[in-house]
Amino acid sequence: MPANSLPLRDIHLPEAIGWWPPAIGWWLLLVLVPLLAALLFYMFRRITRKTALKTAKKCLAALKQDTSLDERQKLVELSALLRRMAISIAPREQAAGLTGQAWLALLDRPLPDAPFSNGIGRLLVDAPYQQHAPSRAELDQLLQLAEKWLDKCHKAPPKPYGRKPI
Asked: Cis ω on the peptide bond leading into residue 128 (within 30° of 0)?
């Protein structure tokens, strides 16, 4: 038989390797990347929350020791400190715009018996509109209440504060 009359075919190349199913490494990467991102987010929130609490406690201790401020100025500083702390542990949209009774209700959440709404904590919303500054004893009670609130915020996990979105 002559060589050019033989029924031979040309060389066949195999099909290209498809992308599906991916190798085991891609499956592991698909699972581990979101888990790692969630873990990093959790650790970031935990570290920043503890840092904010430590800073707030230091500021509160400095406010207690500061003799250059009068009672009304200390009350203003304390209110600003509590608001900054509330914003750092709760979403800004839910905590920053609260005033009056809603603000006191936010502060009452981690504490039993609503001491801000029904007790000495009312000074935060009432004192700016009174003619006389709060007494030293009232301010000391309010500072102790603020310290208790910071301790409860330290022990309790963050909760959604404020009003529900419309």
From this structure: no
